[in-house]
Amino acid sequence: MAPRLSLSSAHVRQRCNSEPDRSLYLAVPLNTYDEFFTLQFIQKVVQRQQLKLLLYDEQKTVISQWIN
User: Fold this and answer.
1) How many alpha carbons lie under 13 Å from residue 27 in its C-beta half-sphere?
2) Which of 12, 27, 30, 38 is the residue whose CA sits 20 to 30 A from 4?
3) Number of structural domains the chain divides into
4) CB of 30 within 8 A of CB of 56?
5) How far is 37 from 35, CA to CA, in rounded Å?
6) How many angstroms separate the most distant Cα atoms in the chain?
7) CB–CB of 28/37 below 8 Å?
8) pLDDT at residue 39, as a whole number
9) Is the distance from CB of 51 to CB of 24 less than 8 angstroms?
């Protein structure tokens, strides 16, 4: 398993503010998306918060889908 990178929310906000031409995506494993992010309540939260998702396959270590 790949090591997890942990950034503080202040660091993320600082980077986003200093590079406004970039978009921040939440990386989500496919199985987590299938089990959690497909729930109607979570879909509403994702839409309301305008979250951008990057779905990846942990076994194949490839990006499966970008969701804006």
Assistant:
1) 9
2) 38
3) 1
4) yes
5) 6
6) 35
7) yes
8) 96
9) no
In the chain, DSSP assigns E strands to 26-29, 53-57, 62-67
Closest residue by Cα to residue 46 from 30, 21, 67, 20: 67
Q: Is 5 a member of any domain?
A: no
26 DSSP β-pair partners:
53
| Predicted TM-score of the model (pTM) | 0.69
Report if residue 62 sits inside a domain.
Answer: yes
Which residues constitute the domain of residue 57?
A: 23-67
Question: Tokens 């978009």 appear where?
Answer: 23
Among 12, 67, 16, 65, smallest CA distance to 43 is for 67
The first and second tokens of residue 57, run together, are 């396959």
Three-class secondary structure of residue 38 per DSSP: coil
Q: Can you read off the two tokens belonging to residue 2? A: 């790949």
